[in-house]
Each structure stands twice: as C-alpha cells, then as structure tokens.
Amino acid sequence: MKKIQMVDLQGQYAKIKESVNNSIEQVLDTSAYINGPLVHEFQADLEKYLTVKHVIPCANGTDALQIAMMGLGLEQGDEVITADFTFAATVEVIALLKLTPVLVDVEPDTFNIDIEALKKAITPKTKAIVPVHLFGQVANMDALMEIAVAHNLFVIEDNAQAIGATYTFKDGTKKKAGTIGNVGTTSFFPSKNLGCYGDGGAIFTNDDALAHTIRGIVNHGMYTRYYHDVVGVNSRLDSIQAGVLQAKLPNLNTYCDARRNAARFYNNAFKNNPKITTPTTKSNATNNCGQICDICDCHVFHQYTLQITNGKRDELHAYLLEQKIPNAIYYPVALHAQKAYKDTRYKESDFPVTNELIKTVISLPMHTELDNDQLEFITKTILDFLK
Which residues have a Cβ under 8 Å from the Cβ of 328 and sit 6 or more positions away? Predict the structure, then answer.
C-alpha cells in the first residue's frame, strides 16, 4: 500500500504532468509573468464552467473576500453576519475593513450557517451575510437568499471549499456554488479541490458594475495605468499559477467525483457504528423538509469530517497519527473564542452546536488519489479503535 497522505498533490500532478509543464513553459517562453495570456484564458474558461458573467482572478482567497467587501462599498461599523465554525479568514477581512463581524451558530448536521440563528442576528446595522460552504457542501441558499431580499442585504459567498458544487433550488433550477449571491469568492490554495501550486484566488459576480469596480480594486485602483480611480490593493493571480489552474480545470468534475466516491466508501464503512456520525448531505431541492439524499453534486467533499460521539475524538486523533494515517481537527477553537475576535456581545449559550463540534469533529484523508487499499486500512483502523 502506498503512503497515505491527507492530500496527495504529487499523485495528482503525475497524471497531468505534461499539461501542467506545457503551461508553465509557455509562461517562461513568453515571460508574461503578470496578467499574461494564460490568466485571461483561465478567467474565460472558469466563467464558462461556472456559467457566470465575470471572474476576476486575484492573489489568494483571503484577498478575494476583502476585495468583494470593498467592491460592495461596505462602510466602517456595518454589520456582517457569518458562521462561527469556519476558518478565520472569513471574519479576518471583516475586522480588517473596520466592519463589525457578527458570528452565529451552525447546523449540527451540515456545519453550515444556521438559518434561524441568522434571522435573530439581523439588526438595522446589518448590511451583508457571508455564508461559508463548509467542507464542500453548499449552505441553504434558498432560505438565505429569501432573507437577504427581505432585508435588503448583500450576500457574499465564501466558496473557498466548494468550487465545483452545484446547488439545486426548490423550484428545480441549478447554480454553481459561488454564483448565487451578489458576489462569490474562492481560494486556489494547493490543497483546494481546484488548487494551484502557490497562492491564488478569484471573485465571481453577474453584476457588471460590481465587476468593473472589483477589476480596479485588484490592480491598485487603476483602469488606466497610473490613474487611480478607486482605492485598491495589489492582488493579481500570476501567470504561472493561472497556467496550473488552466491545466486542472478540465479535470475538476472528475476530481469532485473521485472525492464523492471516497466519501461513499467512508460512509458505507461507518454507517452502522453508533459512535460515529458521518457527514450529512442534504437534498437542496427538499432542504426545508430536511430530507437526506445520497451523495450528490451539492457536496464536493473538500474535507470528509466525522463526529466521534463517545468522547474519544482526541484519543482517535493521536492513535491515527501513530498508525501513519494523517488526519486533522477543523476547527479546534471557535471563532467567538479566539483572542482576536472575542466580544462581550457573545454568550457561550449562543453557540451550542459549534461548542460541541469543536470537541467531536475529525477530518480524514480526502483527495483525488485515494485507492481502496488505503480506504480499507483507514476505515478498519478507526473501527478497530472504536470497538
């Protein structure tokens, strides 16, 4: 059995080596390292894949979130609601822009933002909602968009973990994750489902005026060189990274399917164990009645995250490492409890689900190169430990 890795980028690269190398050589041959032809080609291809009017590449996923908020014209003191159980980048940019982050609890099954908690958090100062499509599953966008329209709020989708996922609305229409709200953002960090070989990110929108503003912001506020029309930043996707992404994008659906297949294997292995709660995949078309579907295109499994319900999550984490099985705890500290984001507005009773998840979740190896031998070893090792 080959070595188990949390993410096997080397194995993935081996299958697309020629295409990746050709793209990189093209950049080297032309020396168009910044804003070169491959950046524009990748942008156009991603627009087509997502069926979105505008993709604006940028330097990383955190920048993408910040620039999206800058483009919407949010002002100091405006409240932005987001989930408590996620990576810090989501709330980090809210604080950096001197906006007011408002953290709310998440659903116990999908780990996505809790709709009822979101409703209760809205005040006259609320200007935007940032749903995080955590671990690759799209949040309840039917309910969330209804709330946004009713309260005249912007929706900024944090799609860093769910590129390639598709959301099915109650009326049967479908949209790619990240293209539903006013603006969506993503990260191309190497371990993402669509990752480059360094840092990279992008912003998506169907709003022509917003896209124009954002294009200026990512390039020092310039539309014409040395003429600065808006306050901007320096955040561009370099051509080599665009070349890597250009080589990978045609494989994205295959990558998502490989992750779903691995998730099915895990689910089947663990389904009868009372000490394990496997990830829930909600059928978006029937989200309001809570029905559960088989693994489908609403989840792309950036992470495969279990809940260990017998109080032995930490012991399992250590044991798996001893057995050379990589694993991770996303996330060990809730955002509301982080030193940087503590606030007297929050009470521990506001976050019962998040506070439970940080004690029970564990993420297993999940990537495109997992084989049955590895999956069998991982699942057998966990089941033996939990006997």
Answer: 6, 303, 362, 363
**Cα–Cα distance list, 301 to 57, 98, 106, 244 (Å):** 23, 33, 18, 21
Total domain count, the chain: 2
Together in a domain, 235 and 265? no
Output the pTM of the full model.
Answer: 0.95
The answer to whether the Cα torsion of 290, 291, 295, 297 is positive or negative is negative
Q: What is the rounded CA–CA span in Å between residue 137 and residue 116?
A: 19
pLDDT one-digit tens code per residue, 229-238: 999 999 999 9
Q: Do 152 and 127 contact (CB within 8 A), yes or no? A: no
Q: What is the pLDDT of residues 86-132, one digit of tens each?
A: 999 999 999 999 999 999 999 999 999 999 999 999 999 999 999 99
Whether 3 is in a domain gets the answer no
Q: Distances from the Cα of 56 to the Cαs of 18, 49, 256, 316, in angstroms?
A: 27, 14, 23, 42
The percent of residues above 90 in pLDDT, for the chain, comes to: 95
CATH, residue 379: 3.90.1150.10
Q: Helices H, strands E: what count in the chain? A: 12, 14
Q: Assess whether 330 and 192 both reside in one domain.
A: no
178 contacts 162 by C-beta, under 8 angstroms: yes
Domain contains 153: yes
Same domain, 242 and 256: no
| Token pair of 201 as six digits | 């990110």
Whole-number mean pLDDT of the chain? 95
Q: Which domain does 367 fall in, by range?
A: 252-385
